[in-house]
Every structure is written in C-alpha cells, then in structure tokens.
Write a structure and sequence with these properties.
Shape: globular
CATH topology: ph1033 like fold
Helix content: 10-25%
CATH architecture: Roll
Strand order of the largest sheet: 2-5-4-3-1-6
Strand content: 25-35%
Number of domains: 1
Order of helices and strands: EHEHEEEHHEH
Number of helices: 5
CATH superfamily: ph1033 like domains
Largest sheet: 6 strands, mixed
Distance between the termini: 25 Å
Mean pLDDT: 96
Length: 152
C-alpha cells in the first residue's frame, strides 16, 4: 500500500513538537471524534505526519512525525479515573483508538495557518476546509508543499 500523509494537531502547552523530540515517540490518545478516529484507524506504519500546534497565535505546522505503531484501542477510554474515560467504550468492542508516532524533524520555519490559507496550491487542504478536525488526511503534494514552505 502506498504511503499516506496526515496532519495531527496538539496544543503546544499540552504536548509540543519539542516534547515529541525529547521523548522520541508517543501514543496519540484522547481522540474523541469519529472522523479523526477513522483517520487514525487508516494510518499505516511509516505514514508521515505534519505536526501542528493549535491554540497558539498563530497556529501552524511545526514539524514532521511518522506513524510507528498502527491503531490499537485507546486504553484510557476504559480507565474510570482518566480524563479520557468513556463509559460507553467496551474493551471487547472498543469505540476509541490511538496510534503511536515518532519524531522525525522540526521545521526550520513554522508554516502558519495564514500561510496555508494564502497559498492557492493548498486551498483544497482539509486544514482549510475542516479546521477543527484534530487528525486529518493530507495529499502527498500538500505534504511536500508544506514541508518546502517550512524550510525542508
């Protein structure tokens, strides 16, 4: 199967690209949107990810990550003491999934949401059309364009 490309959003004060660089890899837990979950279930080991800092001014793509473990049940959904607990999620029929991603590279220059919106070659990007979705698919051409805009 051909490599796929994605964009994943994180708030920098929750888990930044620098945190990912320091840790090397992490599980991407807590996704509670069905479209985002379905996107994660479609991810394959080796797929590349644009790492996006949301909830900052300005928001934007700050780095590159790679899927290093394919979708598996988000065990936090079963933990009554965890903030991501979901009483309707059943370990025998999980509702929520997560993937693991690993650090690849920090962009020399952040590519802001404004930069993306201003680029005609990116006008159909999901980031422009579905800004609130935390895990989005990205076309290869869009991925390469954003990387180039970020100095890679």
């Amino acid at each position: 199967m051909a490599k796929q490309y994605w964009l994943m959003k994180s708030e920098p004060d929750v888990y930044s690209i620098d945190d990912l660089k320091k840790d090397g890899s992490t599980c991407w837990e807590g996704v509670r949107n069905y479209k985002a979950r379905n996107n994660m279930q479609a991810m394959k080991k080796g797929d590349e990810v644009l790492y996006y800092h949301s909830n900052q001014s300005p928001p934007g793509v700050v780095g590159i990550a790679r899927v290093c473990k394919e979708a598996y049940p988000d065990h936090f959904a079963f933990d009554k003491k965890h903030k991501y607990f979901d009483e309707k999620s059943d370990p025998d029929d999980p509702r929520w999934y997560m993937v693991d991603i690993e650090f690849v590279k920090k962009l020399p220059d952040m590519v802001s949401l404004h930069d993306v919106k201003d680029d005609k070659k990116l006008e159909d990007m999901e980031l422009v059309r579905y800004m609130r979705l935390s895990v989005q698919s990205v076309k290869k051409e869009e991925f390469e364009r954003v990387k180039k805009m970020g100095g890679l």
